[in-house]
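User: Reviewer 2 asked us to show a designed sequence for the structure in our supplementary figure. I'm pasting the structure tokens here. Could you produce the per-position amino acids so we can include them in the response letter?
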């Protein structure tokens, strides 16, 4: 069983009580009293807090971990070691279920004796021995874990390190997978976020989620609402199949929200995660290799977005996987399916998703796009799919891109025109399509096209969906142009992905409601 612990990081007694009540009301079955956050810390103050928790009227009292972290190990205040140990020993006497002691401190004989004596007087209390590295992974995490486990009978090792890249997480996954006892292992930072969720699938003893963003006690820590609602924490088990979106950035992506909602609606034991894969082709390949070589992780499908759509195609081609002919011709992939045996299949769902969004918004048939003058801004994976689709129909396309050589290469493949971004000043197109990430959250005040280039009578389509109305679309609307937001394309391609992932149709209306709720704060 994996416990979801909510840290209590208040500075004062009354504030701590408020946080405790909120956590219990939110369904927390375990609390972590981060006593190093308390002002005027004393053993009696901590004992008083524990007494208040034990007197709560909740039908099921939460288990309590008492932690007094060393400043060098991420502690909030620089309390002396003697006081920190006194607090932890007092917590044992006051009825704490667990105390968390830094292994580096416990390794000193006098401290070991002090803690051991306190625990011997309350056999119900247990010891967590922790080690943290805020710079990167441990030099020998397996060796350190074994050393901790052998240092005190029944101790739970807690090994937490900063993931500088998502590929750093696999050491943590391996340690949990190989262990046959209780272990707390995960990674900090945005790149390590998924390790906090996957810990439950792999049987980690505890993972942590804060009450809210403001009360988080470590980088990359999710809130309890995100854990339970967005990532379906309560339904995760060892058989849960994993999916996710690979990209950089991915924090803005609503793919986890819509796919997880559809999984839940369909009663499927599947979970969709944000997979922040920074860097280039080598980093992408290392990540997919790491996933594919660990069948026990049960990754079954991956969405692929900026900047890895061409990297995904190259990877599958170089590793002898299946590539649908359409994706092969487009030269970009946005969907990968992984078999239990590591074989990978590649697809592109952007092509049809974009065409349907354009024709639906313009209320025309696909054949009506023939001969239409189209300006495509960008030359990446999304642009490739859209240029291929419009080229097949016979549209008159010009590709505009910051790097002229990339625009030239794409134009040569699909027999269309090309120009640099400065050529937008001479823009004469009926349909303008932004295929770049410019204007995407968290930089919504940027536009890829000068507003002077937009004229009345144009149709302006922005493939960015977060925010739904980008600066480009606002400027287009003010100029009297017809606008198409990226939500329709996003839902269209996601519906096709969901069918590829599951063999079943998704719920388009549910997806739209989730997107609307996320972007506008209310359900349509």
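Assistant: Here is a per-position design you can include in the supplement:
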């Amino acid at each position: 069983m994996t416990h979801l612990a909510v840290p209590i990081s208040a500075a004062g007694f009354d504030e701590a009580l408020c946080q405790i009540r909120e956590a219990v009301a939110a369904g927390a079955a375990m609390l972590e009293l981060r006593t190093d956050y308390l002002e005027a810390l004393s053993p009696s103050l901590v004992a008083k807090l524990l007494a208040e928790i034990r007197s709560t009227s909740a039908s099921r009292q939460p288990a309590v971990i008492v932690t007094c972290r060393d400043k060098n190990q991420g502690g909030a205040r620089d309390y002396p070691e003697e006081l920190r140990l006194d607090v932890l020993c007092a917590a044992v006497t006051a009825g704490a279920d667990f105390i968390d002691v830094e292994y580096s401190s416990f390794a000193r004989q006098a401290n070991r004796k002090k803690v051991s004596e306190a625990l011997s007087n309350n056999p119900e209390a247990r010891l967590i021995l922790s080690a943290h590295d805020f710079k990167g992974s441990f030099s020998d995490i397996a060796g350190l874990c074994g050393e901790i486990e052998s240092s005190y009978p029944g101790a739970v090792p807690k090994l937490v390190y900063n993931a500088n890249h998502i590929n750093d997480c696999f050491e943590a996954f391996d340690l949990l997978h190989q262990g046959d006892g209780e272990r707390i292992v995960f990674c900090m930072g945005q790149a390590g976020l998924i390790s906090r969720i996957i810990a439950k699938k792999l049987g980690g003893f505890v993972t942590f989620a804060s009450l809210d963003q403001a009360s988080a006690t470590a980088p990359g820590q999710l809130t309890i609402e995100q854990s339970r609602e967005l990532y379906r924490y309560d339904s995760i088990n060892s058989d849960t199949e994993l999916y996710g979106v690979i990209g950089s950035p991915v924090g803005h992506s609503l793919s986890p929200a819509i796919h997880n909602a559809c999984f839940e609606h369909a009663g499927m034991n599947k979970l969709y995660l944000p997979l922040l894969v920074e860097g280039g082709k080598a980093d992408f390949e290392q990540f997919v290799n790491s996933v594919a070589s660990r069948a026990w992780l049960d990754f079954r499908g991956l969405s692929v977005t900026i900047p890895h759509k061409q990297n995904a195609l190259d990877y599958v081609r170089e590793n002898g996987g299946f590539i649908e002919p359409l994706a092969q011709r487009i030269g970009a992939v946005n969907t990968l399916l992984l078999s239990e045996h590591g074989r990978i299949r590649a697809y592109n769902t952007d092509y049809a998703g974009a065409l349907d969004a354009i024709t639906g918004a313009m209320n025309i048939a696909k054949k009506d796009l023939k001969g239409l003058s189209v300006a495509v801004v960008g030359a990446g994976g999304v642009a490739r799919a859209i240029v291929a689709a419009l080229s097949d129909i016979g549209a008159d396309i010009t590709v505009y891109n910051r790097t002229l050589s990339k625009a030239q290469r794409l134009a040569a493949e699909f027999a269309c025109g090309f120009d640099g971004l400065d050529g937008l000043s001479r823009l004469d197109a009926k349909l303008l399509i932004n295929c770049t990430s410019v204007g995407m959250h968290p930089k919504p005040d940027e536009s890829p096209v000068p507003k002077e280039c937009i004229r009345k009578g144009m149709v302006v389509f922005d493939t960015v969906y977060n925010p739904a109305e980008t600066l480009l679309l606002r400027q287009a609307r003010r100029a009297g142009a017809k606008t198409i937001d990226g939500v329709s394309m996003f839902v269209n391609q996601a519906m096709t992905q969901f069918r590829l992932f599951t063999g079943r149709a998704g719920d388009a209306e549910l997806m739209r409601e989730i997107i609307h709720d996320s972007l506008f704060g209310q359900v349509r």
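For the response letter, you might also mention the following. The mean pLDDT is 95. The chain has three domains: 3-234, 244-348+492-517, 362-485.
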